[in-house]
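Deadline looming. Please check this record:
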Amino acid sequence: MSNLIRWNPFREMVSMSEAMNKLFDDAWVMPRNGGFFRNGGPALDMVENADNIVVTAELPGFKPEDIDIQLEGSVLTLHGEVKEENEKQEGQYHVKERRQNSFARAVQLPTNVVVDKAKAEFKDGILTLTLPKDEVSKAKKISITAKSGK
């Protein structure tokens, strides 16, 4: 004799929800390349306001001279490389995670910018790029003239 279990559609939905949560947890919690990077490049934020596009990138362990910033058309490319420090080995390594680390990350900018007026600042492992939008890309207000109803 077999046991019959009454089908409950909500039980299936909960398990689907749990599966989706696990999928996203695995995708975002996985270690970045060497513990610092996501998808082969630094984690970054891009914000557009009325006058500028501001890009902020996490680059721990890098120095400004280790980073190359290029803009070709509307594609911003960040490239960096840190070489391993030459340390005298005092014994046998059991864990060695500090080594040469490099990245290249390209992102599409949402609008055209004026490269000659761009600013790049680096503080405490955070790179902040301020890219002024060109005049053509800036939003312009169009005024409305009212006409009489005749």
Q: What stands out?
A: Residues 81 and 92 are 26 Å apart (CA to CA). Residues 30-35 have pLDDT under 50 and may be disordered. Residues 9-29 form the longest helix (21 residues). The chain is about 15% helix and 35% strand.
